[in-house]
Amino acid sequence: MTNYRHILLCILSASLFSPIGLANTHTVTVFQCVNKNQKKVNISLANGQYIYQFGKLNQKPDITMVRKPEQLAARYLTPKGDRFNGKIYEVDFRNGDYTYTVSSSYLDSKHIAHVDVYQKDKLLTSISCLPNTIVDNLHEHIFDLPSDD
């Protein structure tokens, strides 16, 4: 009987640490930042779904949206000018008439990030991220999302 329990325990342990087991329990931060009013924007990937959260630091988020990759729209732009080269990564989370566009821009050595909130096509607000609070891994996910051409 002890041998049977030992085998069962080994099988259970192995399944918990398999790539599939880890993928179902692992959460990846895709993007995160804080604005001057101490509100945090966070995009995470868990169980194959993207989670957008916005709200005061260390409190329950005011907004939480969970979307499958095919429900998102993404853009990758490469603006060029006489004096700069850039990369811009954007992803849209839609919620009814509202769209939350998370944007991360690399213009030469400068990194800027913000969230624009639209109602239909009208810009309601733009939330700028404090530079030292930005965690940006959008570039690792943007090409796996549907493009918004």
Describe what you observe in this structure.
The protein is mostly beta strands. The protein has one domain. Helices cover 15% and strands 49% of the residues. It has two helices and ten strands, in the order H-H-E-E-E-E-E-E-E-E-E-E. It has helices spanning 2-16, 19-25, and strands at residues 27-34, 39-46, 49-56, 63-67, 73-77, 86-95, 98-107, 110-119, 122-128, 135-136. The strands form two sheets. The chain has a five-stranded antiparallel sheet. Strands 5-6-7-8-9 form a five-stranded antiparallel sheet, with no helix packed on it. The chain is globular. The protein starts with a helix and ends in a 13-residue tail after the last strand. 15% of the residues are buried. The model is unreliable at 7-23 (pLDDT under 50). Residues 1-23 form the signal peptide. Keywords: Signal.
